[in-house]
Amino acid sequence: INIDDYDKKGILSIKYRIFNLNFKLSNLRVNDKLILNSSKKYFITGIGSSKSHAFYFKHLAKIYFNINIEYIPISYENMDFENHTLILISQGLSYNTHIIIKKWKYKNIILLTGKNNKKLNIDDNKKFVINQLIKNNCKIFYFENDKPDDTLVRITGPTLAFYYIYKLLANDNLNLILKEKYEYQKISSNITNLIINNSSKIQIYIISD
Prior knowledge:
Layout: H1 11-19, H2 21-26, E1 41-45, H3 49-64, E2 68-71, E3 85-90, H4 95-103, E4 109-113, H5 124-135, E5 139-142, H6 156-170, H7 189-197, H8 199-202
Parallel strand pairs: 1-2, 1-3, 3-4, 4-5
């Protein structure tokens, strides 16, 4: 809890995190590399705001890695857990996510989380989950999360998670961002001349140096 007698409504806590977002974003570093195999099948999941992160990850993974990836709910049952890889995104590694981790027997999992077992504020159950994943050579990526307080409002974690996912998946492919699906189309000289000659009528002007 980081709300004191001077901030009983949590307003200063929320303001502080908002004002510090730009600094946090500009200093975010991804020090590990994600390797995805186009010959494998991946399932991705997340709950709460992490569900949005999961769909964002899925979108970028299809663009930059061209992998077979499908979103599933946390309670999904009908699959062969042994032969597929789970990508789980959970800022706080909530207890609901432990259900699907156990189904996967703590194996073949890629975890993105704001919970690091090296930090003092993580409880024993979550520490156990992380240690089991590490023991089974699962890949874990850590991004900074909010310090828990009575506001229950997350600001730092959700924002940094989106940027972390972007840097993790697209950072090595910056030259492709406006290529592939979003490539600019060249305008032919005939169209350019037509616009110039009729600019006063159609109210479109071309400004160029």
